[in-house]
Amino acid sequence: MSLDDSYTTPDGRTIGGVLMEMKNITLRFGGVTAIEDISFDIREGEIRAIIGPNGAGKSSMLNVINGFYHPQDGEIWYKGERRQAMKPHAIARQGIARTFQNIALFNGMSTLDNIMTGRLTHMKSNMILQAIWKGPAEREETVNREKVEEVIDFLEIQSIRKTPVGRLPYGLQKRVELARALAAEPSLLLLDEPMAGMNVEEKEDMSRFILDVNDEFGTTIALIEHDMGVVMDISDRVVVMDYGKKIGDGTPAEVRANQEVIDAYLGVSHD
Amino acid sequence: MWYREAGDFKKTYSEDSQTFPIRLDRIGYFVILLVAVLVVPFFITSYAANAVLVPFLIYAIAVLGLNILTGYCGQVSLGTGGFMAVGAYASYKLMTSFPDLNIFFVVILAGFVTAAVGMMFGLPSLRIKGFYLAVATLAAQFFLVWLFNKVPWFYNYSASGQINAPERTLLGYIITGPNTSPSAKYLFCLAFVILLAWIARNLTRGTLGRSWMAIRDMDIAAEIIGVNPLKAKLSAFGVSSFFIGIAGALYFTVYLGAVEVGEAFGITQSFLVLFMVIIGGLGSILGSFAGAAFLVLMPVLLKNVLVGGMGWPTDIAAHFEFIIVGGLIITFLILEPHGLAQLWRIIKEKMRLWPFPH
User: Is residue B34 part of a domain?
Assistant: First the structure.
């Protein structure tokens, strides 16, 4: 299987060429090497999981992808071009959105306003037009509100539209955060432990939403998750990290059979 | 009973995002607006204008300005007095250098000058946050007052160091100077209040307002979803200073007429406006008005009660005024830390169910 070929998964989705490629990424904080010489790629339309024990450098990797950290070594290629070091808000404009391990919603705002912030990169009217409101600014607001309402319908959070997000239960907050990221209509969606702290039912809901997003919008997803059942079920390919190094990469079946991965992370059942 | 949204269906998204979603609110707003524009000017006395209404309107503008910066964008500023001074001195220089320039444009231009100065002093906000930023803006306060005292060009080399507003007219009515009628003062300020409150509302409900609030609530997440912190913070400083500059210009030209910078625009002025923001409610347009009304009206009311009603000597009454206002501020903040706006919100929630308990 060559890198640029597209192929069809057993469940009928088409996986395209390489969307993002990380080449020999090394990230250090002073004397600590968080990521050491890691290369992997994310293909268009796939669900790519990054797994590994705590402190393996998974979240740092997402932070490198969306420009929050700048690696000391290595190249990042996105949509066929080498990406220069740039600010996170500029990277957001290139179509990369994410959610956070610890929910990072804007607590002073309603659910609707939170999701509307996800549309910021699509809204262009300047300060003067906004001050006048009537006319272009209001039209733009309405157009973007329609998009946001689609996301709200999709994630089934209509009833909490006007609720301040601080009042919502944890599971719903996670969903609102996903909605905010989706509202940006990203080409690449990064999910940092989308199911952490959820009960089984909430996890099932979230898994379904992730699969639906991928299926309906064709969004490429890279996710970090600790629940191996979920990861092995929903992802197309898995990268395994340990102490900042890549110890495995491949389909869930390949990763599960990898002895190094079993030793470092998966373990064996004792029965 | 009458105050509820039942039956008031929203059919479009723009209807849903209107300022007053409840019908009674809309009616109330227009009634207040009509009374303020069409009724008050005919009954206004010189005392009512100078002691209550004009300072209330001017402070309302300043509070709206600071609320945009502190309440919406989360950047604490103690430089309000200094920025008001920039507005005042800019309007003075404009009035004396261009005597034919219409007073309306003088005030607007003074706002733009202040916006530029405010953005300059807002630059440190890109690096520092919270208390440290407050200290940086405090430096702006002291520097600006010092500048207007030290450089004679700003007060046209007058012997007293004061600036005096020359007489200017608008549509044939005298707006500034000692011969201004109370209703002209009032209406001129009211026009700015209506215009600026409308702008503040529009800016805070749209994209810009959301990016300000995103920066306020969680700046890292805001940047990662595409808010440019530089643009968001500097635009907040700019808009905020624009409002405060206009308030300063009106404070000097219309309200006081003659100003000595250290007295009129000192650090106490900065704190007064900040108190109004906090008491009114951070991040609320209505709260800005409530806060300004509270701190302008309270001392006047107390004075009338203590001196007029109970016959106390004025000096003792003045001291008690401070004690009572201070006590009220503390009481308020303990009872409702989110300000008068939150109190109003709670009352409205209750009103929807009234007279039924649930």
Answer: no
